[in-house]
Amino acid sequence: MAENADKITPATLYPNHVSSSKLTNGLCHQTEQNGTQLLGKEPWWKAGVFYQVYPASFMDSNGDGWGDIPGLISKLDYLSDLGVDCVWLSPVFDSPQADMGYDVRDYQAIYAPYGTAEDVDRLTEECHRRGMKLILDLVVNHTSVEHAWFQESRSSKTSPKRDWYIWKPARYNSQGERIPPTNWRGYFACPTWTWDEETQEYYLHLYAPDQPDLNWENPDCRDAIYKETMRFWLDRGVDGFRIDTVNKYSKRTEYQDAPVTDPRWESQPAPEMWCNGPRIHEFIHEMNEKALAPYQAVSVGELSNMAGPADVLPYVGAARRELDMVFEFSMIRLGTGGGFGPKYIYQPYTLPTLKRHVARFQTFIEGTDGWTTVFCENHDNGRAVSRFGDSGSGAELWRASARTLALWQATLTGTLFLYQGQEIGMVNMPAAWGIEEYKDVESRNFYADASASGDRDRVDKTMHGLRILARDHSRIPFQWDGEARNAGFSDADETWMRVHDGYRDINVKKQTGDPASVLEFWRRLLKIRKKYPDVFVHGVFRSLRDEDLQRYVYVKESKLDVNGKPGTKRRALVVMNWSKEVQEPENVNEVLGCSAESAHFLVSTTDGCRERAQLDAALEPWEGRIYTNFQP
Ligand code: GLC
Ligand code: CA
């Protein structure tokens, strides 16, 4: 092992090494054990752990092969035991399921296979009874083509709801052929306009043609959204919303062509035409004032295509009264070829790139009234352990890397979001599965597009990308039990997506009570995060060894002093080995800026698997550790 070449010293790490503490001794004293009292004034959702449930795949209670709300209710104790504070339920509203419920036909009714509105009421009660909250997924950039509003809008040009969607006349090219109003390419490998024969106009859809965009410029339409979708469910007792595609409501209203960036396509990527448009902050503020704030509802918006932190901050600054928090995607999009053209042509990247994205969105809130989120999985991405960890080199490294990714997530600043199955290290669908097992509209369209090109290489590359990145990987049935049919997810002969072949190895039952498991490690980490929120939830993030290709190292620093001693901030050092090779350790007390006696081992990913190494022992493959400068 090489000598520590780039030596890290407290002076470079902590420029304000001795800082004045405004805390009274009394307060500091109270917080010696943990930072929870001091942070008691913060809103619940900052230190709360959120858990996303994908309803179709979580738990099937009636054997029809689809997960459902009663199934979810039957697993609430499991979530509560894990340490979850809030359940985020992906769309359960009535829908023709062109995009798995992100195409809503009726905001006030529940898709029958999932249950009824009364089941949602019961779910809310059952969450509340366990001290948990429930948020629903609000999809109001667009509706389904089958929504009554769109049916009315499309019925005639003079319909009172015509203007609730975005209709434009055709253009004609030099040959006199009809062409769409703009050349925009949307998501799912679709152009953004569909021709309506009946009324002889095009309607806009950023996603599939089944998902027409609502016209937020129309005030009646906005009021209907607030009242009939948001307030309707808030009145019934839900605690807030994850808000889909939140920065796409205000389009640039000139409706001009986007520059041609790829002459091979008829339509061109044009996110600048519909993301963060001129009235977006006005709309979101209004949404907050009219629907969220009166209920003190929590909000987390999906914010894609952002140039950088300066553009994100206005959405989450508390004084602006827009959103509590957002998901920013630069880290989770790593490996994709961008959202529009070659999304599934895999683009390799290095650990330093990942670290840079994380560091940016860890630190951008410093000195502001904004807030950030922490997540590495959701229903739109491949599994983290398959993308960022090592799920392909055997059980040992699968487990070690899943645990290290857990340690990473649980020590970052912001509100932590887990996705179902992440807590047991669920992995991507087997590589041997063919395209027929991919059910997602996006996977299918990109694959069909590649096939239609007749370019064999593009088809192979697309399939390769899908194996890593497809949205399908996170959507297969949850693995509850290795001995039960369909992994304990369902009694059905056939489940809506195929159950992973590896469910006997990776499942809740097998991991429960096993101190060496991914699940028990997550449980432990969430307790640690909650015990020291000043460090882990609210701490200042300082990255080290930015250019190291294997080691991922950072310090989290609290606002609180160690044992109330002014100028001695509580710190945690997170050292992780993101590789298969043994890595040299850190000089722990030096980096923490404390004496050797004051440096403590808080946790290692090998805990429960084998005896813990010395403070200064080399890091095993995919091992992660936390050290502190205070007595844990
Ligand atoms: C969001 C959802 C995604 C959906 C899209 C259209 O990105 O997370 O699943 O396809 O919006 O609603
Ligand atoms: Ca069912």
TrEMBL record:
Question: InterPro entries from the entry?
Answer: GH, GH13_cat_dom, Glyco_hydro_b, O16G_dom_2
Domain Glycosyl hydrolase family 13 catalytic positions = 52-475
| Any one of the GO BP annotations | maltose catabolic process
A Pfam family that the UniProt record links to this protein: Alpha-amylase
Keywords of this entry: Glycosidase, Hydrolase, Maltose metabolism
Transport in keyword set:
no
Any GO molecular function: glucan 1,4-alpha-maltotriohydrolase activity
Task: Extract the CDD domains matched here.
Answer: AmyAc_SI_OligoGlu_DGase
Family label:
Belongs to the glycosyl hydrolase 13 family.
**Cross-referenced PANTHER family:** ALPHA-AMYLASE FAMILY MEMBER, MALTASE MALT (AFU_ORTHOLOGUE AFUA_8G07070)
Q: What is this protein called?
A: Glycosyl hydrolase family 13 catalytic domain-containing protein
